[in-house]
Specification:
Family: Belongs to the glycosyl hydrolase 43 family.
Strand content: over 45%
Mean pLDDT: 90
Distance between the termini: 28 Å
CATH superfamily: Glycosyl hydrolase domain, family 43
CATH architecture: 5 Propeller
Helix content: under 10%
Strand order of the largest sheet: 1-2-3-4
Pathway: Glycan metabolism; L-arabinan degradation
Number of strands: 20
Keywords: Glycosidase, Hydrolase
GO molecular function, one term: hydrolase activity, hydrolyzing O-glycosyl compounds
CATH class: Mainly Beta
Protein name: Glycoside hydrolase family 43
Shape: globular
Length: 339
């Protein structure tokens, strides 16, 4: 491919980025929602950029389209695509929604009544392929993988020490006011679920979220949002979860109060998915989030996220782990163009 056909991160529309570092081909695969302006392919779906050095990327290939799935329950969304290797195949998780399929509004909880107008089917679907480049085919086109009566998003794969696969997802603040992280066991072929969901934590468990809020009560300034979970097991057995939320009432340089998208993380004190989860301070602010960790081919631990939330671009950070403490060493402005 000619150099003129290659892209740099500042040129690449990129929301909810997810990287697969394929050691066999020494190629980074960067998945995001399909953007027809760069892929040239219309419709809701997933596209992938590829690179050997994290600096120059191919133009994207579309690996999944809702229009190609027979009998699919939803055709909108295509958010937060992730691809995971499992039992010799590749599994795509991506969030879809259908506003024409309303959900029953749950009863009022401790923080008030859920948002009735916007309760509709939303959840992560599972699709499978024999290749990182697809095409991916939805395993069950009739429903999302988490319970369909729940309004959920951003499902990710976690495999526990016993080899049990789980889908971890965010339960929408639109139903709960105080958004939660939950998990549900998956069948061995990832085609379905086993048992009821397990509550992991709620957004307001992050103590720093309430530091600027008078009284610190979620019902005073709703909502509290959970977004973008991604699990990471350290070499010494600690279990971390990256996740994102919206900070509230943070004083800006001009003295006014505002907020923004935030990349943070939590640590499981037991080392197990079920926790208890201890919330840590944010890693990156500045309207940044939905990050994930991956190992670069040169051995560095890297985090990719998007910034800003609207018209997002990918930002890369070199990271360091000290026990269960995750630290940002530097933003790789030589790769992502800064900003």
């Amino acid at each position: 491919m000619a150099d003129t056909d290659l892209l740099r991160l500042p040129d690449m529309p990129l929301h909810d980025p997810f990287v697969v570092a394929d050691t066999g081909t020494r190629t980074y695969h960067l998945y995001t929602s399909n953007d027809p302006t760069v892929s040239g392919v219309s419709g809701t779906g997933t596209m992938v950029y590829r690179s050997h050095d994290l600096r120059e990327w191919t133009r994207p290939d579309v690996v999944f389209r809702t229009a190609d799935q027979e009998g699919l329950w939803a055709s909108d969304g295509g958010w937060a695509p992730e691809v995971h290797a499992w039992n010799g195949r590749y599994y795509l998780f991506t969030t879809l929604h259908n506003e024409d399929r309303p959900l029953a509004v749950p009863p009022a909880g401790p923080w008030g009544t859920p948002f009735q107008i916007r309760n509709h089917m939303r959840g992560t679907v599972t699709a499978v392929s024999d290749s990182l480049l697809g095409p991916f085919t939805v395993v069950d086109p009739t429903r999302p993988t988490p319970p369909e009566n729940l309004m959920t998003l951003d499902g990710t794969l976690h495999v526990d020490p016993a080899g049990q696969p789980w889908m971890v997802y965010a339960h929408e603040w639109l139903q709960t006011i105080d958004g939660t992280m939950e998990a549900v066991r998956l069948t061995p072929d990832l085609s379905g679920t086993v048992g009821d969901p397990v509550h992991l934590f709620k957004a307001s468990d992050a103590p720093w979220l309430g530091e600027q809020i008078p009284g610190g009560l979620p019902h005073q300034l709703p909502p509290y949002i959970t977004d973008g979970p991604q699990l990471h097991r350290t070499s010494d057995g600690h279990l971390l979860m990256l996740w994102s939320t919206y900070e509230k009432n943070v004083p800006g340089a001009d003295g006014t109060l505002g907020g923004g998208y935030v990349q943070t993380y939590a640590v499981s004190d037991s080392g197990d998915l079920t926790g208890p989860w201890r919330q840590r301070r944010p890693l990156v602010r500045d309207d940044s989030g939905h990050g994930m960790l991956f190992d670069a081919f040169d051995g560095r631990l890297m985090m990719i996220l998007h910034r800003p939330f609207d018209n997002a671009r990918g930002k890369l950070y070199e990271m360091r782990l000290d026990g269960d403490e995750l630290r940002v060493l530097r933003q790789c402005t030589d790769l992502d163009g800064g900003g």
